[in-house]
């Protein structure tokens, strides 16, 4: 298949480099699936190249509209390069389970992943505080209005970047093993061992002032107690 | 600090590109910490460059001795390039929690990450079956001897690659928020919201033959039931 052909069984890839090639039926190009994968993520892996070669750096991320945001210290190599418009590939992967087939060959994993190609844009100084508020609200809704806001020096020391989601693709595998017909009678356990990134009990830093934990902490504790 | 200076507070980085630059005290260069991070992982992100630019692809991984292994179809772009000796950066990240500080600026995440630089080596045909057995045993100990082994065609269609761990570094953050002294009295909840990749109840594919699930499935179910 030519690299120019971006058609797929699940819609059209936005560019040749976003077309899912390996097992094309797992590729998805619609916004809903992409947004769901990004919004479930706390971190992404950013790949970029400099004069030392290729790097792959994990960093926190959040989505607003049709952009994925990252931030960090002005001193970060990655942020400096990205701010200069370097081409990047940003990948987010949620591992949902181990797929145990009846033959060694058909073992697999269930996952939801997203890849975004492009170049980051620098978020302007007067938009930085609002973008960082959105990040805090992604982590813990309402928290941006509870904590001490960034002061002038803290904001000046922070770079916020955003990557347009124009050139993005999702890849998803769900369900049980796809065994060969001839193996279905084998006396071996087959199925999925599911995995999920799960909240554990909150760990307060010393005695919290006042007596009420915010909603997002009590909700976290509830989910941890399941 | 010069790029040539690979010294760090936690030992010596094996090369300039593996020296942790941002928050150097989180960098670790000893084998035990590196192995623990790799052995807890089911997948890694592989960054590499080709004529279309930089890519970042998630794939299953396992460690044997002083190598990280990956595998896949001979048809995979990534595996073909990696097999040709392309320089890569492989990153593994475990997210352990959200760190909620009293100021917006000091929010952070707890994590254990590892980065490995280098070039993959092709595992020879007569070593492939043993390497893939080790992969299955990483996923589910003992399973390699229960399932139908790969036949000649399946093994021939599979590329197995390994990356030496010579040029690797770990980066780890643990513990609560590091707030400014002046913020400690603020009336805001601070602490860690921990996260862990957690087993959920096994999902058998139809009625398993026989009546005994293997040990790794019953152990998984037990961990899921906590």
UniProtKB/TrEMBL annotation, chains A, B:
<dbReference type="InterPro" id="IPR024747">
    <property type="entry name" value="Pyridox_Oxase-rel"/>
</dbReference>
<dbReference type="Pfam" id="PF12900">
    <property type="entry name" value="Pyridox_ox_2"/>
</dbReference>
<dbReference type="InterPro" id="IPR012349">
    <property type="entry name" value="Split_barrel_FMN-bd"/>
</dbReference>
<protein>
    <recommendedName>
        <fullName>Pyridoxamine 5'-phosphate oxidase putative domain-containing protein</fullName>
    </recommendedName>
</protein>
<feature type="region of interest" description="Disordered">
    <location>
        <begin position="200"/>
        <end position="226"/>
    </location>
</feature>
């Amino acid at each position: 298949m030519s690299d120019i052909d971006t058609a797929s069984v699940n819609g059209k890839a936005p560019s040749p480099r976003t077309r899912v090639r390996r097992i094309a039926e797992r590729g998805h190009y619609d916004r809903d699936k992409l947004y769901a994968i990004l919004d479930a993520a706390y971190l992404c892996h950013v790949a970029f190249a400099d004069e030392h070669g290729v790097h792959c750096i994990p960093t926190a991320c959040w989505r607003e509209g049709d952009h994925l945001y990252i931030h960090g210290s002005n001193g970060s190599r990655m942020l400096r390069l990205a701010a200069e418009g370097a081409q990047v590939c940003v990948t987010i992967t949620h591992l949902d389970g181990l797929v145990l087939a009846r033959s060694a060959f058909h073992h697999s994993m269930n996952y939801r992943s997203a890849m975004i190609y492009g170049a980051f844009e620098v978020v302007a100084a007067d938009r930085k505080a609002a973008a960082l508020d959105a990040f805090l609200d992604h982590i813990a809704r309402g928290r941006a209005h509870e904590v001490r806001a960034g002061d002038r020096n803290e904001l000046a020391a922070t770079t916020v970047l955003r990557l347009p989601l124009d050139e993005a693709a999702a890849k998803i595998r769900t369900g049980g093993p796809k065994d060969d017909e001839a193996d279905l009678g084998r006396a071996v356990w087959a199925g999925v061992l599911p995995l999920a990134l799960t909240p554990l009990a909150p760990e307060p830093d010393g005695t919290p002032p006042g007596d009420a934990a915010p909603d997002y902490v009590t909700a976290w504790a509830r989910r941890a107690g399941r």
